[in-house]
Amino acid sequence: MGWLAGVLILFFGLMVSIALHELGHFSFAKLFGVRTPQFMVGFGPTLWSRHKGETEYGVKWIPLGGYIRMIGMLPPRKGDLPGQARRLSTGPFQGLIESARGASLEEIRPGDEDRVFYAKKWWQKLTIMFAGPAMNLILAVIFFAILLMGIGTPTPQPVISAVAKCAIPANSQLTECPEGYTPTPAASSGLRAGDRIVTYDGHRITDYDQLQGLIRDSGGRTVALTVERDGRPVSFQVPVTRNQMYDLDDPEKIVSVGFLGITPLQERERQGPVAVADYMGELTAHTAGALLRMPEKMVGVWQAAFGDEERDPNGPIGVVGVSRLGGEIAASESPIVEKVAMFIALLGSINLAVGLFNLVPLLPLDGGHMAGALLEAIKKFFARVFGRPDPGYVDVAKALPLTYVMAAVLIVMGGLLIYADLVNPIRFAG
Asked: Which of 107, 304, 308, 363 stands the most exposed, by the fewest C-beta atoms within 10 Å?
């Protein structure tokens, strides 16, 4: 039951996020007077719907996204009048464009001339299309604010959680101590789990980051160390060794530093708004970088789905995979607060990724329509500067061949992710 509950929690969390994304578009479309016949969560056949006013609200069977349908997304050709019959070119691409344009314009009724999307001001079109991704980005900030400010983040304390038996270099394949190993300085000196380190090499210890820096700088020396054990101070002389460890400033670099052999106790500490802003900045940069490497990441997904490759835990994941992760988190033996924190972090990360992905300036993504609106603004600006006639709207229909290619790529990517999530899923490592 726990596993199923986790699946449902993540699934409905995703559906609510999708609905709010579409609500962002829908709210500003209504505000600017664009007629919007449909507001749907999901694709395919309709599971449930209800008409209210001029809009049909509903849920469809395939929960892989959602959409709102606004009239006049594709404009008429320059010089054509609304409702005018259009000549179809014999060229395959031009014929495709004009067929789609005609189907889009058939929805326009008498009196809709000022309610079509293409006739709106460029900044209104930009706002309508940006409002969807913006909703996801706002949700991401809300989720991580709840996580960091409400629940807190695991923060290492200057308290020993575990003492390592031996030193294993960071780049080593060893998972256990080799035969005839040398005990770590902490183990040989008699340090124990539960000891709170009070002083180190003459320095009063206030936090783990300070302690970690002092340990790394003291390799090859014997250091005076005092701990608080069972309410009493206990002093040690510890011969600190050196070990190959990951650099704190560059995690991909390995350096030789002082090594004690302790694991710090992790306690959740609540953060402030500045910490949320810093974290969101770092996570946004990391997520944007991952999106730029998406083709490379999808090659890895293919190899994991059809070969013997390990699935990258930091790689892309689909709706099925996210739901499975929710089930594994709920079924784990982690404390309730840890489970809640992981659910919130997962939903926040997904909303951030969806928001940034939709800003990619390619149709059919929201960023494609935003790019069209910005191009319209640039053309109008130069027309005013040089005293030329208003160039009018940008004909985004001309990009339809590329749009269909992009849509096909997205469908293939989605199908590959679903298959990989079924046969070689990313698993919860807690």
From this structure: 308
- The whole-model pTM stands at 0.82
Strands 55-69 and 153-163: unpaired
Pairing of strands 203-204, 196-200: antiparallel
- How far is residue 343's CA from residue 330's CA, in Å, rounded to a whole number? 9
Cα 296 to Cα 149: distance, rounded to the nearest angstrom? 35
Known active-site residue 22: yes
- By CB atoms closer than 10 A (0-12, 13-18, 19+), residue 103 is exposed
Using a CB cutoff of 8 Å and minimum separation of 24, what contacts does 282-291 make? 283/144, 283/349, 283/352, 284/352, 284/356, 287/349, 287/352, 287/353, 287/356, 288/356, 290/314, 290/353, 291/353, 291/356, 291/357, 291/360
Q: Which helix (H) or strand (E) holds 7?
A: helix 2-31
Q: Where are the alpha helices (DSSP H) in 106-207?
A: 122-145, 185-189
Interval 35-69: pLDDT, tens: 999 999 988 899 999 999 899 999 988 887 889 99
Q: Both tokens of residue 9?
A: 């929690």
- For residue range 161-220, what is the model confidence (pLDDT) as tens digits? 999 999 888 877 777 888 888 899 999 999 999 999 999 999 999 999 999 999 999 999
Enumerate residues 6+ apart whose C-beta is below 8 A from 388. Answer: 382
As a CATH number, domain 153-269 is 2.30.42.10
Helices and strands, number each (H, E), in the chain: 11, 10
